[in-house]
Amino acid sequence: MSLSLISKSEYNVFYQPYIDAVKDVGLLEGLKLSGEAVNSFLLSIPIEKHRYAYAKGKWTIHDVLLHIIDTERIFAYRALRIARGDKTPLAGFEQDDYVIQACANSRSFESLLKEYNTVRQTTIMLFESFDAATLLNIGEASGFPVSVRAIGYIICGHEKHHIKIIKERYL
After folding, report:
1. How far is CA 44 from CA 33, 37, 112, 159, in A?
2. Tens digit of each residue's pLDDT (9 = 90 or more) over 36-84
3. DSSP letters of 77-100?
4. In which residue ranges of the chain is pLDDT below 50?
5. Can you tell me the distance from the alpha carbon of 62 to that of 162, in angstroms, rounded to the nearest whole number?
6. What pLDDT does residue 164 have?
7. Which residue in 51, 33, 54 sits closest to 159, CA to CA?
8. How much is the pLDDT for 6?
9. Would you state the pLDDT for residue 4?
10. What share of the chain is helix, strand, coil (3-state, %, to 5)?
11. CB 83 within 8 A of CB 134
């Protein structure tokens, strides 16, 4: 299903930069390709940079990676609920609180990368299970309507956003 057909009514305008970052790619292809690109990029980062933060109070690369993982899990859960017709409004989450509680810097890079790959594979499998009609299901998350397919694109765009920040500010 083409991204160009996604209506702005399928997601909160806050996510427009994420949607824009992944235009011109199919949803499943985007999930697969971005997963491969993230792996390649993360493996190229020198180990001495993994726990580096570019300013006091900013996240380390470990923190950013676990934030990407946590966010993907939350968004995949939202997609599942909406795909299954659950009309319960889904709450937002406070990313900074998650990062504090996650203790990413006490973990090895290898364990974080393994977790990232496992989460991505399950996300791909989840989205592969949705038919065209299911991708159009609309639910509510963080007080705004969102479609299942928009969530998939947001997952990819969110990741691209953070990779860009790592390239610009950490390396």
Report:
1. 17, 11, 15, 17
2. 999 999 999 999 999 999 999 999 999 999 999 999 999 999 999 999 9
3. HHHHHHHTT--SPBP---HHHHHH
4. 1-2
5. 12
6. 96
7. 33
8. 85
9. 53
10. 70, 5, 25
11. yes
Structure tokens at 131: 């038919």
pLDDT of residue 1: 46
Cα separation of 67 and 83, whole Å?
Answer: 24
Structure tokens at 5: 């057909």
Burial class of residue 65 in the structure, from the number of CB atoms within 10 Å of its CB (0-12 exposed, 13-18 middle, 19+ buried) = buried
Concatenated DSSP letters for 36-75? HHHHHHHHHS-GGGTT--SSTTPPPHHHHHHHHHHHHHHH
CB-side exposure of 2: number of CA atoms within 13 Å? Answer: 3
